[in-house]
Amino acid sequence: MHLYINTTSPFVRLVRLAIEEKSLSDRITTEIVDPWADPAAFLAANPAGRVPVLTTDDGVSFAEAHLILRYLDEIARPSLFPSDGLAETLAIAAPALGAMEAATAVIIGRKSSDNFDSDMVGSKRFRSMAEGLERLNARLPRDFANRPDIGNIAAITALDYITFRFPDRDWLADLLELAAWRERQNGHPSVEATMPYI
């Protein structure tokens, strides 16, 4: 299998965390692309021009992190959507994914407007990030050492992406439970192997 990635996308990290936790690294080659450069082979695999994009061993290509996670869950264990406690797990994942999507919207919005952060849309996105992290602080994910699932994968992706992209704010200053949770994940192999970088 082949996976188009970049080194910063939180959507890519969701998939890469799943690959690591499912021990699929030796079955999937990765290729770093610049989605904004519109390379031809990449666009042939995904006309929307977004990462990640997975091509299966049968030559079928599809994008969108949630769809790729669904496929990976079908071909390898452990499941990221465990039947026991599924609703609780999804309730943890939802605000994390919302915060992550808000953060990427700010990064993209800044490309088109110097005032994006302070306009109506940008302000709402920053509020979504802060409130998403507050909800995670109130309802912590499982530790990775306990069990990987969509809740902790989404939570660590959102938290690390927000602190990576917006380092001028101490996002965890008042979120002591979430800060302690993040500290406990240090050293976990999938977490360390997938950290975003420029």
TrEMBL record:
It comes from the Bacteria. GO terms for cellular component: cytoplasm. InterPro entries: Glutathione-S-Trfase_C_sf (IPR036282), Glutathione_S-Trfase_N (IPR004045), GST_Omega/HSP26 (IPR050983), Thioredoxin-like_sf (IPR036249). PROSITE patterns: GST_NTER. Pfam families: GST_C_2, GST_N_2. Keywords: Transferase. Residues 1-80 form the GST N-terminal domain. This is Glutathione S-transferase. It comes from Palleronia caenipelagi.
